[in-house]
């Protein structure tokens, strides 16, 4: 295998599609499409226009582009909120001027929101998330967010999780009344596949998804979908624009009522580019993802976990959009370390509760027996 020629030993990834562990694996149909895409050249704007048509059909958004990941989509989405279709503003980023605040609930802060600061945004936190500290019941309210909006506000930011407050419909009402765009990080909110449409339907102006997580696309791919003028701004700030200006044509997929009066320089999002192979791979993976029903996907993933559980002789399958296998060894941290020393990576998110989590998304057929046997072993003789 190619990794062995490089002196790198493959791992068993039972932790899910983490970037740290190289994401998941792609279906043969996806890798075949990528290999074919690599054998011919195209106009990259025409390919992004084709991507926009597919993304619009599947998400219900006006337009969309493929980026180098959800983090890149966040960066580009923020850049679009900051500069809109103002070419001088695009050229000035990351110097965003006065209007550069992204207002968000303090409880939703996370390490990925760095992407909003890269193009020049500033994060304004609202609310005291008492319900997480255990000292109270409140989070941020829509009214508190509304009160924080002013002339410096470039956009609102919402991180999609089932427990996020205020709700997206409440926040989108605030955004509409204030006339500011609403950007949503939904990187890992798939499945259920209905979430591809849900956030747009609930009023988001821009939504980011990871292509390398459950969609099963290339690890370095992502989707930015939403309002045509904002997606257009994002595209212009990502493209290689090294051509004589009169030769540039914006495809109708991205041209709203207002195309920029002149072409910007290479944008703040130039490093977010997706190659033709990634764009094609993402589109094929996206079509496959929506072709499988959530019920079929859950049943398929449960069957994977069932085989691991049978080989381990222990464990409990927890239902969810992505079902998980949970194990409670005597000492979860010690057991996790033993597995890791054997190049087996399990989910670490619930070690505090004493649980090992097996996520089926990045498991290969060849992993199941060995994973199950190793889990059975640490459950029998983990130290502690
Ligand atoms: C995974 C993730 C990202 C980053 O996605 P990439 O496609 O790896 O860039 C951003 N935000 C959240 C909430 C995520 O879970």
Automatic annotation (TrEMBL):
Keywords: Pyridoxal phosphate
Residues where N6-(pyridoxal phosphate)lysine is found: 213
Cofactor(s) listed in the protein's UniProt record: pyridoxal 5'-phosphate
Gene3D superfamilies according to UniProt: Type I PLP-dependent aspartate aminotransferase-like (Major domain)
GO molecular function, one term: L-seryl-tRNA(Sec) selenium transferase activity
UniProt similarity note: Belongs to the SelA family.
The protein, known as: Selenocysteine synthase
Organism (species): Falsiroseomonas bella
């Amino acid at each position: 295998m190619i990794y062995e020629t490089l002196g790198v030993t493959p791992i068993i990834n039972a932790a899910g599609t983490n970037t740290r562990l190289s994401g998941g694996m792609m279906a043969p149909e996806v890798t075949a499409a990528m290999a074919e895409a690599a054998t011919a050249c195209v106009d990259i704007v025409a390919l992004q226009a084709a991507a926009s048509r597919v993304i619009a059909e599947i998400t219900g958004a006006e337009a969309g582009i493929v980026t180098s990941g959800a983090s890149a989509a966040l960066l580009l989405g923020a850049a679009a909120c900051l500069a809109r279709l103002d070419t001088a503003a695009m050229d000035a980023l990351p110097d965003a001027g006065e209007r550069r605040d992204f207002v968000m609930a303090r409880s939703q802060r996370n390490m990925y929101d760095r992407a909003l600061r890269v193009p020049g945004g500033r994060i304004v936190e609202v609310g005291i998330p008492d319900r997480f500290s255990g000292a109270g019941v409140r989070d941020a309210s829509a009214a508190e967010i509304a009160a924080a909006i002013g002339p410096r506000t470039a956009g609102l930011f919402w991180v999609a999780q089932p427990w996020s407050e205020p709700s997206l419909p409440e926040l989108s009402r605030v955004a509409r009344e204030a006339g500011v765009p609403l950007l949503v990080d939904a990187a890992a909110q798939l499945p259920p596949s209905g979430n591809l449409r849900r956030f747009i339907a609930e009023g988001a102006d821009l939504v980011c998804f990871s292509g390398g997580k459950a969609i099963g696309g290339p690890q370095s791919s992502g989707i930015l979908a939403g309002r045509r003028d904002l997606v257009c701004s994002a595209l212009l700030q990502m493209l290689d624009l090294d051509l004589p200006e009169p030769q540039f044509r914006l495809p109708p997929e991205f041209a709203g009522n207002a195309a920029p009066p002149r072409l910007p320089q290479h944008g703040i999002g130039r490093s977010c580019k997706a190659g033709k192979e990634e764009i094609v791979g993402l589109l094929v993976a996206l079509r496959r993802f929506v072709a499988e029903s959530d019920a079929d996907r859950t049943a398929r993933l449960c069957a994977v976990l069932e085989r691991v559980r049978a080989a381990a002789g222990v464990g409990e399958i927890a239902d969810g959009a992505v079902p998980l296998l949970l194990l409670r060894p005597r000492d979860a941290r010690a057991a996790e370390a033993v597995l890791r020393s054997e190049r087996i990576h399990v989910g670490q998110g619930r070690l505090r509760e004493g649980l090992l989590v097996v996520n089926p998304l990045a498991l290969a057929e060849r992993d199941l027996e060995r994973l199950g046997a190793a889990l059975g072993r640490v459950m029998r003789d983990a130290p502690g």
